[in-house]
Design brief:
By secondary structure, the chain is of the alpha+beta class. The protein has 2 helices and 7 strands, in the order ββαββββαβ. The mean pLDDT is 94.
């Protein structure tokens, strides 16, 4: 699984989630490396284990001839408190890392395989993620 080698702050603030303010990604909007990409249609926090399961699906589908790129990296820590613990007593322990994704962000890219295979591989990878996705071409 992906996680940063070193972090400046072990725990982050949770950040705001205002449903009335629709924000759109400003970076990573176009397919840059491959021929086909998987674009996020909604906003979500994609955890490192979800990225890893999508990576495994892509790796199997693409095979030896194709190549794929992961365009997001989980560098945002998230915390959880143990079960049956009362409120208060501080913030929970570090549980893992997530990548915040906004609508329009390209998550994965694929190249070196046919269009039908690329679309199917990206569709399968998208089912592992907690956000609605769309396959786009260059």
């Amino acid at each position: 699984m992906l996680f940063p080698k070193k972090v400046k702050h072990r725990k982050w603030h949770t950040m705001r989630r205002n449903p009335s303010r629709v924000s759109v990604a400003t970076r990573g909007l176009s397919v840059a490396f491959g021929s086909y990409g998987l674009k996020a249609l909604g906003s979500a926090r994609i955890r490192s284990n979800q990225i890893e399961s999508s990576r495994k699906v892509l790796s199997r589908s693409v095979g030896k001839t194709g190549r794929f790129w992961i365009r997001i990296f989980p560098d945002m820590p998230y915390t959880t408190k143990p079960a049956e613990v009362k409120l208060g007593k501080g913030k929970g322990d570090l549980a893992g890392y997530a990548a915040p994704v906004l609508p329009g962000r390209i998550i994965f890219e694929v190249d070196g395989i046919s269009e039908v295979d690329a679309r199917e591989a990206l569709r399968k990878a998208g089912t592992k993620l907690p956000v609605k996705t769309k396959v786009v071409a260059r």
